[in-house]
Design a protein that fits this description.
Elements lengths: L2 E11 L4 H10 L3 E12 L8 E3 L1 H13 L6 E4 L5 H14 L5 E4 L4 E2 L2 E2 L5 H11 L4 E2 L3 H7 L10 H13 L4 E7 L5 E8 L4 E8 L8 H14 L4 H19 L12 H17 L1
Helix pairs in contact: 1-7, 2-3, 3-4, 7-8, 8-9
Bound molecules: 3-hydroxy-5-(hydroxymethyl)-2-methylisonicotinaldehyde.
């Protein structure tokens, strides 16, 4: 069984980061080791949340694992709370990276043209530099713009998207995948560029007109799980995009408290069926 490490916060209430990655990747048949960067009462879209920063625990925890000679098939980073934690994530890559370790970075810090409350431009620049270490990065358009000094694209052509991918590729990651790219009205999906093959890939599905917290984390977790189970990049991104859209549709049935996150618990059986179907294909 493959083993991955995910480095992100625990938000106790309001499904996102570790409370999505751990159940979803585990359910996909991949051992999921967690390194919590902080414990928050809720994610940061709630008001008055509490935070216990765990920065000083990260080195001792990973030193212990190193002494146990643990091997990770992938390291997946999501929301990192501070500039210092970006530096520690880089150290962790160095400590545990071997030839077969996939580094998957979701540079979680912004959406809809704005940085999340905890972050500033200096943080965006550090995240851009961390992305240079990755095999795959999956920024949304806002994050990509912040990392490449591009004015936020509210509307765009396919050429604009390819130009943005070109700038992202210069950060140094092998594969750069933009999320939330809508090429035609009513559709949304991903647009990726593989710098190794010099090849683009696109997947669009129906846009579900709703915004929920944690959907990016769900998408990334499914990608990592699917890649670890041996799916191709294209198949992994397709599965993740379809599953995320289906889970948003499912969540719409429950109009209460949309900021609590998506009801992925209801759709996990469907994810596993979809994964098994892809594995048989
Ligand atoms: O879903 C991304 C995320 C993860 N963790 C925390 C967040 C957010 C987005 O706002 O606040 C604490």
């Amino acid at each position: 069984m493959k083993r991955i490490l995910t480095i992100q916060d625990i938000s106790c209430l309001g499904k996102c980061s570790v409370t999505i990655a751990l159940p979803v990747i585990s359910a996909m048949g991949v051992e999921t080791v967690i390194l919590p960067t902080a414990v928050l009462s809720t994610h940061t879209m709630f008001q008055h949340f509490t935070v216990r920063d765990l920065t000083e625990d990260l080195r001792p925890i990973t030193d212990h694992w190193k002494s146990e000679n643990v091997h990770f098939d992938a390291i997946y980073t999501g929301y990192l709370g501070s500039a210092e934690e970006i530096g520690i994530a880089r150290e962790i890559f160095e400590k545990f990276r071997s030839d077969d370790t996939l580094i998957f970075i979701d540079p979680v810090m912004a959406d809809n043209g704005k940085l999340y409350p905890a972050f500033d431009m200096a943080y965006a620049k550090l995240n851009a530099s961390l992305c240079g270490e990755a095999d795959i990065i999956v920024p949304n358009i806002t994050e990509a713009c912040f990392m490449t000094d591009t004015p936020y694209l509210t509307s765009y052509s396919e050429d604009d998207i390819r130009a943005l991918l070109g700038k992202l590729a210069k950060l140094g990651a092998k594969r750069v995948v933009l999320t939330g790219v809508s090429l035609t009205p009513g559709k949304t999906g991903i647009y990726g560029y593989d710098t190794v093959k010099n090849d683009y890939f696109v997947y669009q599905n129906d846009l579900v007109d709703a915004q929920y917290h944690g959907t990016g984390d769900l998408f990334s977790s499914v990608c990592v799980g699917a890649l670890m189970r041996g799916l191709s990049m294209e198949a992994a991104f397709r599965l993740a995009a379809d599953y995320t859209a289906d889970t948003i549709r499912e969540t719409l049935k429950n109009p209460e408290k949309p900021w609590y996150g998506v009801d992925f618990e209801a759709t996990l059986p469907q994810l596993i069926r979809g994964l098994e179907q892809e594995l048989r294909a």
